[in-house]
Amino acid sequence: MPFISKDWRSPGEAWVKTEDGWEKLKVLECGKRKRCSSECSNSSEICDSENWTSSTDLAETEVPPHCHITIRCTREIAGFNGLGEAVKRLDFRSSVRDRRRFQYICALLRLLVAGKGIASLPGSAQRLLLQMLEEVASHVCEQQQNINILRGLAMQLQKIVRQENQKCWGKPLGSQSLWNGHVQTIKRIQDMASHVTINEPDPEVRPKLHELPEECIREIILRISDYHDLESSSAAWSLMAAIVSEQRVWRELTQFHFTQEQINLIIVTKFSTDERKDWQKIFHELRRKYGIRDDHQYSEVLVLCRFCCCLFWPSAGHPCIADQSPDFRARLKDAGTEIEDAQPVPPAQFLKYFSL
């Protein structure tokens, strides 16, 4: 006998028709969009995009981008983290145009492209990844910045296409038509990367960089947190090279990236007490021993809420159980449990939450 009533085991999902196809309402809610009207809350109904975007029954409510994940599976909790859903719920595509999140997104894309490649990802994840890459290419062409990042990603994509064409057997996940569409997208990204140019500013704009006082140039140099950028700037201009060679620049860079205990240990073990401190050598010794912290490389890093196992952007926040239940923190304190509110999630750690 056929089962024709509602399935009591699952409430089902409400779906919304978008430009990119049908999508779950709960995924689209994690963005700056209006919530669906009450008619769409029934699991047996499918929401129309017009009803979803132009509904006047409910006031506009902004839900910050966030994504609940399963840290570990138990007998009581069995979960699966989907990369495609996490990318949508965290609004990675729009975050490309946020200067605070741009470097983090690009680092994540480099890991995805340089690892097993996009060919091993599910079809929906491949499409989302290439959409993000195309958004990066468009943003770089508009802003005329970070061209080296775009060209590096384009070279990795070209390598992936070449490897797939040389395979004797085995095809990328997804249909052949889907992969052909990906190849066309990769060609568009490569075209944008090869034709991007840096336009010189208007000759009448004043002051120019070389017209600024040395004190202003020094303040600019002191705000650079990446030693690669320091080395590149020293090769661009003799005045910058002289400033970069100053001990103050490398001392403040060392103190920014490392703790005083780490610095003292390296000075005691690697350098003699009578030797004059060379902060550039000290920095590189510390970098080789401890590495550079990921949360210091980016202006904004995804964080994991330890209370509700939720990934979110610190500048946007998230709906947390600790905020919804005022006595939650008090109960934890009474139980003698000390939990750090949020933990930074570097790009490599973010990918470990998914089965790639």
Write a structural description.
This protein has 18 helices and 6 strands. The protein has 356 residues and is mostly helical. The strands form 2 sheets. It has a 4-stranded antiparallel β-sheet with strand order 3-5-4-6. Helix 6 runs parallel beside helix 8, helix 7 runs antiparallel to helix 8 and helix 9 crosses helix 11. The chain is globular. About 8% of the residues have low confidence.
Secondary-structure topology with pairs:
Layout: E1 15-18, E2 21-24, H1 25-28, H2 49-53, E3 66-68, H3 83-89, H4 92-95, H5 102-114, H6 123-143, H7 147-166, H8 176-195, H9 214-222, H10 227-236, H11 238-244, H12 247-257, H13 260-270, H14 279-290, H15 294-297, E4 303-305, E5 310-312, H16 321-324, H17 328-334, E6 342-344, H18 347-352
Antiparallel strand pairs: 1-2, 3-5, 4-5, 4-6
Q: Residue ranges: pLDDT <50 for 5 or more in a row? A: 32-59
Q: Based on DSSP secondary structure assignment, what is the total number of beta strands?
A: 6
Mean pLDDT: 79
Cα-based radius of gyration, to the nearest Å = 25 Å
Helix content: 40-55%
Q: Summarize the helix and strand pattern as letters.
A: EEHHEHHHHHHHHHHHHHEEHHEH
Task: Look at the helices and sheets and give the structural class.
Answer: mainly alpha
- Rounded to the nearest angstrom, the distance between the terminal CA atoms is 40 Å
Largest sheet: 4 strands, antiparallel
Write down the overall geometry. globular
> How many helices does DSSP assign?
18
> Can you list the strand order of the major beta sheet?
3-5-4-6
Share of β-strand residues: 5-15%
